[in-house]
């Protein structure tokens, strides 16, 4: 009732401290940017949406995500197979072997980067959103309910004093 009356402009609303309002605004901003950064980093690390969904499902089911061959490693594998077909002694075969080995190293470095970024960067962001932010939201709801209770009590007291003053006049 108090909430509805406040929204309709029929009841007074106790304002929170300006510094506290500023902190709430900063918390909301932090949450929004953290979500955007988390999503975009996930897109950068795994551009394939279906693979991201699969990884998400494995994560929610507490199962180990199967390791994928990176594009660089796959290219390296194709180059090595092509080199063996052309013959490792031919100039083209030798070149394919060298480039394939370099691609394999690049693919392994990419895999390590993805693993490291997931552990060292994405995990703290997820921990904030799933832990700290939930706590902040819960405490904010509790504060809002307490403020509504306070305002409802103030309104009842004001009505009681008005009725008492009216009875004293009569």
UniProtKB/TrEMBL annotation:
Pfam families: BAR. The keyword Cytoplasm applies. GO terms for cellular component: cytoplasm; membrane. One of its GO terms (biological process) is membrane organization. Keywords: Coiled coil, Cytoplasm. It is found in: Cytoplasm. Coiled coil: none annotated. SUPFAM superfamilies: BAR/IMD domain-like. Its main location: cytoplasm. Belongs to the endophilin family. This is SHLB2 protein.
